[in-house]
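Run log, item B.
One chain of 145 residues. Sequence copied directly from the ordering sheet:
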Amino acid sequence: MSTELKEVEGMQWVRVRDAIQKRWPEINKQELAQCPNNLDHLTDFVSKRVGDSQEEIESVVREFAPHESLIDRISHNATDQVGRASESARFAVMRADECIAERPTQSVLASFAAGLILGVTVTALWLHQKPEPSRWERLKSQSWN
């Protein structure tokens, strides 16, 4: 990020802190200044020191906070999606473990049957494929009249 952009963003965060200080003057200005330039950190910081609702605190902070760039939003969304996908995968593995533990014989037989069917299918497809004729075979089959 360029120096100018950092300065502009820094000024925007100063504006956020000023709005917080005006809304909740009981918050210590030095402690507020040490809080990182992040929506979640500032919201948590303020909510620990005042008795207002989380929605009100978030609305004040978000109103004055600089908007995330497109790259930041994509990055956050991608991180969220990866987190959800890994959680779903973990749940699926846990469920499969439970099913195997509940019915080990049926699980082994089902796996054996699936493997046997897959093996027969692949073998049949492999045996029924027609090999591509080589160049020599193609030249031999042409008529030279």
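Observations after the first pass:
- The chain has a mean pLDDT of 83.
- The radius of gyration is 32 Å.
Flagged for discussion on Thursday.
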